[in-house]
Amino acid sequence: MGCRTCSACERQFVTRDQIFEFFRRLAEDNPAPETELEYGNAYQLLVAVVLSAQATDVGVNKATRALFAKVKTPQQMLDLGEEGLREHIKTIGLFNSKAKNVIALSQLLVERHGGEVPSTREELVVLPGVGRKTANVVLNCWFGEETFAVDTHILRVGNRTGLASGKTPEQVESKLEKRVPLPFRLGAHHWLILHGRYVCKARTPECWRCKLADLCSYKGKVLEKPKGR
């Protein structure tokens, strides 16, 4: 899935100093960025991220509040069963396939990992419904690893700003891996997601209130706030 605005992107590389300043400003506004998904332990985080595919964090949180009040472990999820899980998540897109994946991954966690969420990408990505992005979120948010979970927001922001251009999440992740400096690596993907979600929006980026506008390579900047917004 490509960036909607790639045709308008300069795709130029920004300098190391610009990249540092880019993240310094994001960190100044939000020193301790976190995922907006709600969870209480590593297993609930894993389930929430699996459920969030092609869904909003807000929608997932609404569905999981009651679910996570009852289910805190893989065995409790198995006891709830697929039908019971579907009832909790039926407001989320693709809930039937997601319910099957969550039950299947819970079974594997019980059988192979003693009910614990593994701490390596290699072990995580073999779980049903868990891809590289999901694994990276869990590794970052729970295990404190400097991973970059590239979603549609980061793909767009990376291309639009010139920070990390690429046609695929893997290409953008590779660029971020090489370019994001310390001390910003742990929080980088959170800042980029939040920036894409609330400022650098898909259809109408709100450049007029963006603190990164002077560092951004996007040719289509609208620096004056449109009337009525």
Outline the structure in words.
There is one protein chain. The chain starts with 15 loop residues before the first helix and ends in a 31-residue tail after the last helix. By secondary structure, the protein is mostly helical. The longest helix is centred in the middle third of the chain and has 19 residues. 52% of the residues lie in helices and 0% in strands. The protein has two domains: 96 residues, Endonuclease Iii, domain 2 (Orthogonal Bundle), CATH 1.10.1670.10; 100 residues, Endonuclease III, domain 1.
- Fraction in beta strands: under 5%
Shape: globular
Order of helices and strands: HHHHHHHHHH
Global mean pLDDT: 93
Total number of helices: 10
Q: How many distinct beta strands? A: 0
Roughly how much helix do the residues carry, as a percent range?
Answer: 40-55%
> Which CATH class of the largest domain?
Mainly Alpha
CATH fold description of the largest domain: Endonuclease III, domain 1
User: Low-confidence spans: pLDDT under 50, at least 5 residues?
Assistant: 1-10
Give a summary of the structure in a few sentences.
The protein has 229 residues and is mainly alpha-helical. It has helices at 16-29, 42-51, 57-70, 74-89, 95-113, 121-124, 132-141, 152-161, 169-179, 188-198.
